[in-house]
Amino acid sequence: MLKNYIKIAWRNLVKNKLSGFITIGGLAVGLTACTLILFYVAHERSYDSFHTDSDRIYAVEAQVNMGGDSIYMNSMNATVGELTENASPVVSSSLRLKEEYKPVIITNTSQPGTRFSEKDFSYADANFFDFFSFKLKNGNTATVLSKPYSLVLSEDMAKKYFGNQNPIGETLSVRKDSTYLFTVTGVMENTPSNSSLHPDFLASLSSMPTMKEFERDFDSEVFRLGAFPTYLKLTNPTAKNAVENTMQKLSIQGNAEASDVYSLSLLTDKHLNGRDASNTRYIRIFPLIAVLILLLALVNYLSLSTARATLRSKEIGVRKVNGASRKSVAFQFYVESTLYVIFAFLLSVALSVVLKPWFFSLLDIEIDASFFLNKNFLLILTCLLGFTVLATGFYPALVMSAFNPVENLRSSRASKMGGERLRKVCTTVQFVIAIALLISGIIIHQQLDYVRGVDTGLNRSDVVMVTLQNTMGTNSTPFRNEIEKLSQVTSTAVAQYPIYKGYNMFFASSEQVPDATGLPIFSVDDDFFKTLGVTWETKPDDENFYSKSDPVIINEAAISKFKLGPNPIGESLLFGNSKREIVGVVKDFHFENLDAPINAVALFVNSKTKATTTILGKSGGCLFVRFQPESDVPQLLSKMETIYTQYDSATPFEYQFLDDAFDTMFRSEERLSHVFNLFIILAMLIAGMGLFALATFSAQQRMKELGVRKVLGASVLQLTTLLSFDFLKLILLAILIASPLAWYFIHEWLQDFNYKTTIHWWVFLGAGAGALVLAILTVSFQAIKAALANPVKSLRTE
Predict the structure, then answer these.
(1) I need a labelling partner for 562 at 20 to 30 A (CA). Which of 65, 451, 481, 793 fits?
(2) pTM
(3) What's the Rg (C-alpha) of the chain?
(4) How far, in Å, CA of 91 to CA of 269, rounded?
(5) What 3 state SS string does 729-770 have?
(6) What is the model's pLDDT at position 241?
């Protein structure tokens, strides 16, 4: 019986090729989109879950109050883990981790030409591979980090520095302010893409006390903040609150006046709930998009399958007259639906595999190919298949099995067999989803364009930021001089950090606000204001103001924050024990994310000569280069790289345009925009395919009616209008429903932005007009074809 049902399903599919292609193709496209989004979402939600004890691993955090501002810190003193472990029996182990915040220069000592600048260099306690579930390819987990100056490489780094040679026992030199020699003691597998930790180089933390740069990180045994991200592994997750109370007591024991609030954050929550996780801002929106696209595909399938099934009313009548039960008829339709869904599902899996690299490049993410075979994701796909089979088969089986055999055999009019109202609802729902996505996509584009055009208080155009390491040393001055000699360069400036890439945070106070308050600090030279187009509110009277003892420039927001006078020139801010006189005020400018209001900032200004030698030469920093708008940029960059290599061959030439750095702050919004672009196209494609198939069905069903009307004198235009009008009414209804829904959701989304675009009425009008044009083009093709048909052919059987 089952074999017979499959044969019938296959014959019907071959017989109605166009309808079958649209039905299965539309569902496959929807399932492909859903699969790719679910793959991305499942990956994002699986971060760090591959660790054996992931539900028991916590990161230590602290909430610090600074002058009324709450700041969250995740770096602890070197003894915090050990103290907590000794004081709390539910803490089974602790781990300290320290990442170099600046690139280091690594050289293979046996091949001095193999030298690179590396960013992912970290230090870890000896129990790292027992604490986490990272796998070693070579080396012993218990001893690989037990000795000072031991080093574990990732597979990629081992190949990069040693090729196919066994690196165990080999030596790498690591250059920072000083140069240190590390012995390779192990090679670890590359970290999974769903890991929040990605150390390419993992050095023994026991090396740090003997390294000059880290001596002060070990000078206290008090429970307090420090330099080490610290992790605890509990014996039981329910003991979290007890451990937090223990940490609070330890903090007070170290300092009776301590007000910091310590807490534990689950490692698996770090990626999604971290305060720096802007790349996952829309992880909750993407599943909604997946649901809408799947709903669109299911509605399309349901609409077309019921339309196709009603044409088989006589077949059902004959089967029932010959003794077929309602149950057997329902089962037949379920078998057919399951077969079609399996075809669509297999096609969607193939499309997902093919489109996966392109889709993830669109999202600017990398996901291990092996994750596609992850058991949790395979379970998600199985559930998706099961749900699709149930959703697509239930209604057609229920409706078709309920047909009255007497009515079926008495009339050839399939419209009486049910489903017409459902198909109207399905068509409306399809276009509600498509139009809502279209409206949302347009406004997201407008918002992106709007924030990119916001006046940030800086002239971002035609500025390139060149990152310099301390390896430049005393060559920083001749390097800058050579850059300034280039004909395309109009000016240069120095700062400790690139704009939008970070700043120092100092504690400051004033007479009006005596409590220490966090204040961002930029160390710059006197050309900074001219080169970046920073506008003066009150310019210093003395052009050589930077030659005074400890001057400071503040912005307008700092006046308000420290309750200074309207003209604060001559007033002072206290930075610890250092008192600095305010000599100038600049207008507010954005130096961090636009989502927050402009923050207060102070600028420590040095002369051009001093800044070049102390910032660029000693500690490394950023050289801002402003060039002429009409410059040949590739040629300019090539010349700059040539000059750079002459003065610093140890580190690669790294640069970024200032406007590109600004745009990276909207990476999550761009990601959402890309996804909307893709799925707007898919939604319109699925909706258009469904409408085309329904128009074809409607024209076939009313062929004799059209023949009679044409014989009685109806024109082609009249017949086309007759067939199109019913569908256009549904599209107009969809526009009326989709517009307020889209307005509500996009209005809520815009509330997350400090700067937001206006929602214009013409967006809704344009989206609706676009949907109507699509519908008219789709329906008219079949309507005109039916209207032009010879009425003799349609009426000859009457």
Answers:
(1) 451
(2) 0.78
(3) 34
(4) 19
(5) HHHHHHHHHHHHHHHHHHHHHHCCCCCCCCCCHHHHHHHHHH
(6) 92
